[in-house]
Amino acid sequence: METSDRVGAGVSGEPHFSRFLAEQGCAPLLRSAAPETLQLNVGKLCNQACHHCHVDAGPARREIMTATTAARVIELIATSPSIRTVDITGGAPELNPNFRVLVEASREAGREVIVRCNLTVLFEPAMEWLPEFYRANRVRLVCSLPCYTAENVAQQRGHGVFERSVRALALLNGSGFGTGEGELDLVYNPVGPSLPQAQAALEVRYREELGGNYGIKFNRLLTITNMPINRFADQLRRWGRYDEYMGLLVNHFNPGTLAGLMCRSLVSVSYDGKLYDCDFNQMLELPIGASQRGAARTIWDIDDLGALSGVAVATGAHCFGCTAGAGSSCGGAIA
User: Fold this and answer.
1) Cα–Cα distance between 218 and 214 in angstroms, integer?
2) How far is 305 from 279, CA to CA, in rounded Å?
3) Hey, which bits of 216-332 come out as E strands?
4) Which residues contact 264 (CB under 8 A, 6 or more apart)?
5) How confident is the model at residue 146 (pLDDT cuts 50, 70, 90)?
6) Per-domain boundaries in the chain
C-alpha cells in the first residue's frame, strides 16, 4: 500500500516526502497496526500565542469541540479496544468546557490520559481546581517549557511566562506531580530554526537548572522539533530562512526514525470530529486515508478506530520535521 503525499505548506519546489523515502530505499510508511493512541485536539482557544505554535492557537480563536462531538468521542473510546491512551491537547485543552468529562470518561473506560498543559493556564480565572483534578484522575501531564532560562522562554512565549511556568511547576510538585506520585514531563523545542539538542544530555541540564535554581522536579524531558507549518512557517518566511530550515531537515533525514513515528500508532481527532494521522496533518487539513476511496473521514463514519489499521499515512514536506536527527514525536525524540 503506497502513501499519499501532498506538499505540507503548498509551496512548489518543496521536497516530496514519499518520493524521498523511495529514493532512500525505505519501505512505504504505513500505519502498521490498529492505533493505540487517540489524540484529541479540543480546539484552538489558548491563553497564550506562542511563536512556534503549529496550531496557530491563541486567546482570540473560537474553534472549540462541542458537547455533541465530545459525547461521540467518548462513545468511540468505549468501542475501540485497541486505544490504550487518550492524549488531550489544544490550544489549552483545559479551557474547553468539555475537558472534565473527556478526562473522567476516558479514565472510567480504563484508558491512560495525557494532558498537554502550557502551565500558565493554571493561573487563569476559575482554574484553581486543576491540580487536584489532575491528581484525582491520575492524569499524566506533558507540560511545555521550551527552555530553562527566562530569556529564551520570553522569545517564544512572551515576557513573564517563564516565571509563571515555574510557579505552576512548584504548584504541581506540591500536588505530587514529578515527585513520585504523578507523572510530569516537560517539553523542549528550539527557539529558532535548528534541531533540538540531544534529549538525554538536555534533560540533565534541565534538572540542574530547574532543580538547583527553583527546586523543581519532573520525570522526563521530551525534545520536539519545530514543525515548518502555520505560525512557525510564517515566521521562517519573514526571516527569509524557510528554505534553509527545510534544507536542514532534509539533510538530517534519519531512516532510523521511521519505525517509531507516532503516525504509525496514533489517530488524531480535530475539534469538529474529523480524523487525521497526526496533529500536524490536522493543522494542514490532510485527511486520513487521503489516497484511498471510502476511508472514514470523521468520528461519525466509524465505530471502532481499530478499523484504521493499515490505512496509508498522508504525508507532506513537513514530515521531514519528524524524521530529522533523532526524530520528533509527541513522545519526544525517537532514535
Assistant:
1) 12
2) 16
3) 220-223, 266-269, 275-276, 314-315
4) 29, 30, 31, 32, 33, 313
5) confident
6) 4-323
CA dihedral 296, 35, 188, 154 (to 10 degrees): 30
SS3 content of the chain, % helix, strand, coil (to 5): 40, 15, 45
Mapped onto helix, strand or coil, the DSSP state of residue 200 is helix
99-104 own/partner pairs: CB under 8 Å, 24+ apart: 99/42, 100/133, 101/70, 101/74, 102/40, 102/42, 102/70, 102/73, 102/74, 103/133, 103/137, 103/139, 104/137
* % of the chain with per-residue pLDDT over 70: 87
The residue that leads in pLDDT, 135 or 151, is: 135
Give the number of other CB atoms < 10 A from CB of residue 316. 25
Strand, helix or coil at 235?
A: helix
Q: What is the pTM of this model?
A: 0.91
CATH of domain 4-323: 3.20.20
